[in-house]
Amino acid sequence: MRSILSGEHGAVLGVLEKPKVMPNHVLVKIKACALNRADLNMLTGATHGFIGGLGFPIGMEWAGEIVEVGEGVKQWQVGNRVMGAGPGAFSEYTLGNAAWIYPIPDNLSDEQAATLPVALQTAHDAISSNGQLQADQTVLVVGASSAVGLMAMQVAQLLGAKHVIGTSTRAEKMAQLLEYGADSAVNTNDEDWSKQILKLTKRKGADLVIDFLAGPLFNQTMSVTKIAGTIVNVGRMAGETGMIDFDQHSMRRITYKGVSFRTRSPDEIAAVIQKAQQDLIPALAEGKIHLPIDKVYPFEQFNAAFEKMKANQHFGKIVLSL
């Protein structure tokens, strides 16, 4: 099978043996796969959790059709359209853990479906399980123009948030945030962005903050978090380190949680996916939540797709179609 592999100087197209189905897994013929920022780090052999390495197939998000079912699998059949997140997604076939995949609603194309698994499980886990969102709370998504950020705003609305605020660093994206779940949008390049959020929340701050930025913005993020509120850190796009005002953290009594799938057991990941599936697949089928596709490339044009992602000018997901 054709597969995109990491190489010393970047991704290369290689040929690997088609995976053999294993117990509790399904073999999937991939129809489309979506790029994630973590893929850029793996192009030259870096690892992301337990996946990656020089010469290994890259990619972590796919959609396709089951062509073979392993021993012990009861919930899936040959011919089912499914989507999931897992290693080796940029290939013609992949093995999917039967407990880690989602059904594709009939109203979605393979390209649309490929954009969803990472965002669904990451956003739902951050907001519902770790954020413990309560009805009528205010949610702030810091760095909301990423795919997971766009999904987080929609999931917050779906699960009953009273007011959802999204932030971006680009003025042209403010209106786009409003199309994907934000009631209000704030530009964090504005010197007074934290004052704007306090004004929107009547100076109380947000009950729940989903933070994709961290880094030097963190102290300001704490300042717009409600006293006894919660911050869930999902990403560190603004920086992995920074000065922390521990006094502010203590005085505001903020609960700060870090989340990652890279340090979870297979059973923990399966539990996250089951919860996301229960709450979000019906909403997908009804068209209540979705993600934009910036551009679809033929599979062979993967390097052009990676270059587009590196430029960081896209809005929505970049997809490879097989």
From TrEMBL:
Originating species: Acinetobacter pragensis
Domain of life from the UniProt record: Bacteria
InterPro entries in UniProt: ADH-like_C, ADH-like_N, ER, GroES-like_sf, NAD(P)-bd_dom_sf
Keyword entries, A-Z: NADP, Oxidoreductase
One Pfam family this sequence matches: ADH_zinc_N
Lineage start: Bacteria, Pseudomonadati, Pseudomonadota, Gammaproteobacteria, Moraxellales
Boundaries of every Enoyl reductase (ER) domain copy: 14-320
Record keyword Oxidoreductase present: yes
GO molecular function: NADPH binding; oxidoreductase activity, acting on NAD(P)H
Name of the featured protein: Quinone oxidoreductase
